[in-house]
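Weekly sync, protein design subgroup
Attendees: M.S., D.O., the rotation student, P.L. (late)

Item 1: inverse folding check
M.S. brought a backbone from last month's batch and wanted to see whether the design step gives back something sensible before we order anything. D.O. pointed out we never logged the input encoding, so this time it goes straight into the notes. Structure tokens as presented (282 positions):
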């Protein structure tokens, strides 16, 4: 063995040890994050009614796919009654930050006003929510959902169809631009919504509550995002997306009431696409 070879071996051994240690530390961190997330999912802060929907919404798998960590700064878009907030708020409370971009305070809609006030009341009175920062979002508005370039992640769950039905393509484009502006370079946009088969007419997106995955991807790319990955986590092959009252025919809404209730309950909640985008670093 030459002196040069012995030197290379001496250099290689500590590098190998460092690499193995780094891998071990990364695995431990991932395990700790998964445990913390599961603890938030199992938290008593969540209602039993919301927990019952986990089998359809797969929160652990979905949030892990997007890469949410306890130290993340996250913007949740249109949190409504707080289904995902019940998980994100305790998960991010100690080391991270959660912005809840709710309906605008000056909205003319009484429903929006009631929903926002109920959420604000919960932030004020629920210990699990008291670190949440409430901001505002409207797809055609100019509200600041978070300080510019401050967020690690923007997440929107089953909202895209509402923006499209209310304001068409322009509303969706404007919403995605707001998300882009709030994210740091390298930040992640996570999108989940009801999936319309690509073979169907675009006109079906106007009132069915279902959206084409290709449309979501095109709108995100138009705003400057890059598609990282799509996931089948929230897919449901039983859902044909052609129901009498659109997506609201299915649980949990069951808009037909008792009419064919057993049939639609057996289908379960909708088939959904789950998309992960990134804001380029340069």
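Designed sequence read out in the meeting:
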């Amino acid at each position: 063995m030459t002196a040069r070879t012995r030197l290379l071996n001496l250099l290689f051994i500590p590098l190998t040890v460092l690499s193995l240690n780094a891998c071990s530390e990364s695995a431990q961190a991932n395990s700790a994050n998964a445990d913390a997330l599961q603890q938030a999912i199992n938290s008593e802060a969540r209602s039993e009614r919301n927990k019952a929907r986990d089998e359809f919404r797969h929160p652990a798998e979905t949030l892990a796919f997007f890469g949410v960590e306890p130290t993340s700064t996250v913007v949740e878009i249109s949190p409504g009654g707080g289904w995902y907030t019940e998980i994100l708020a305790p998960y991010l409370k100690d080391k991270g930050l959660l912005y809840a971009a709710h309906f605008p305070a000056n909205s003319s809609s009484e429903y929006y006003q009631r929903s926002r006030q109920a959420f604000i009341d919960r932030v004020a009175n629920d210990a699990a929510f008291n670190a949440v920062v409430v901001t505002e979002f409207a797809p055609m508005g100019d509200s600041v959902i978070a300080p510019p370039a401050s967020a690690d992640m923007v997440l929107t769950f089953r909202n895209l169809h509402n923006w499209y039905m209310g304001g068409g393509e322009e509303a969706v484009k404007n919403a995605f631009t707001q998300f882009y502006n709030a994210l740091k370079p390298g930040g992640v946009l996570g999108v989940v919504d009801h999936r319309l088969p690509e073979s169907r007419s675009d006109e079906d997106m106007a009132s069915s509550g279902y959206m084409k995955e290709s449309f979501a991807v095109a709108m995100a790319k138009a705003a400057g995002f890059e598609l990282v990955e799509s996931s089948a986590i929230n897919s449901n092959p039983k859902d044909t997306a052609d129901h009498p009252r659109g997506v609201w025919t299915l649980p949990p809404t069951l808009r037909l009431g008792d009419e064919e209730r057993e049939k639609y309950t057996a289908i379960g909640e909708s088939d959904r696409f789950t998309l992960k985008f990134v804001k380029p670093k340069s």
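Discussion: The mean pLDDT is 93. The beta strands are 73-77, 97-102, 133-136, 151-157, 183-194, 226-231, 272-278.
Action: P.L. to compare against the previous round before Friday.
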